[in-house]
Amino acid sequence: MLNQIKGLHHVTSLASDARNNNVFFTNVLGLRRVKKTVNFDAPDVYHLYYGDEVGSPGTVMTYFPFPRAGRGAKGVGEVGRTAFSIPTGTSQAWLDRLATFEVDGIAQDERFGEKRVLFDGPDGDQFALVESDDDRTPWTGNGVSKEIGIRGFHSTDMRLKDSGASAELLTFMGYEKLDTKDNVTRFVMPDGNDAKTIDIEELPGAGFAAQGAGSVHHIAFAVENRARQLEVREALLDTGYQVTPVIDRDYFYAIYFRTPGGVLFEVATNEPGFDRDEDTAHLGEALKLPSQHEHLRAKLESYLQPLEG
Description:
By secondary structure, the chain is of the alpha+beta class. The protein has one domain: 2,3-Dihydroxybiphenyl 1,2-Dioxygenase, domain 1. Helix content is 17%, strand content 37%. The chain contains 5 helices and 16 strands. The protein has helices spanning 18-28, 91-100, 164-172, 226-239, 297-303, and strands at residues 8-15, 32-39, 42-51, 60-65, 78-87, 107-111, 114-120, 126-132, 152-160, 176-181, 184-188, 197-202, 216-223, 247-248, 252-258, 264-272. The strands form 2 sheets. An 8-stranded mixed sheet has the order 2-3-4-1-13-16-15-14. An 8-stranded mixed sheet has the order 6-7-8-5-9-12-11-10, with helices on one face. It is globular, with a radius of gyration of 18 Å.
């Protein structure tokens, strides 16, 4: 069993409009845009990162907004809902706020004794705000008060036809089974970061998901540094998983592999962080390009959709 993984690092999804995506996460949810860069494999598409003040691991929601992309189809073999942590007792404040912005899909429920506010993003993305005792410091620069501000990720839901093989994988990665209720099993990372929970929702009769706008592309798990990442990679290879070589993503190093249930996992380093090429006070303001695409700057700046205005 591994002990290097410490919980979630980031979640990456697909969108259909960069400006609408930016407005939703900064104006409605009050997160900070900590990086404005491009998809390394498709540089004519943004890669936008939203999180706390510095983009701490376990707080960062990221998006590839492909212009006019069709919506994905919900189903199994994907992360169906991404949950953020909010302070205990703040559900009503968030219900009121989301209603003010006419957000779709607003509802309430409880899971494993925790109150949740459910809602949809601009592309039908499914989210939850979960009341929890979480002392992380929220970003408050976008008009959401410290008293109700999002603390970072709480958990993600993996929707699968059968949970067995993926449950074994999570256990191998260091997660422990906490509880099962109905068709949902909760796993937590002991001594992990504050984004330490994964729920598996078993839906044996559901069809398979098809990716598009509103779909989660992958979820990333945090390791402290490249040495720990290489240990994880070697262990996964020894277990029979096909794992990519280490890829430099400028703000972290990444490896990827596909889970038995079809979800794409990444293992990302906490180093070097989002302040490697921008001062903390100005994170996410300028368009930052990886070195291999810097020669395209003039073209990209004229082509990419302005996020403000």
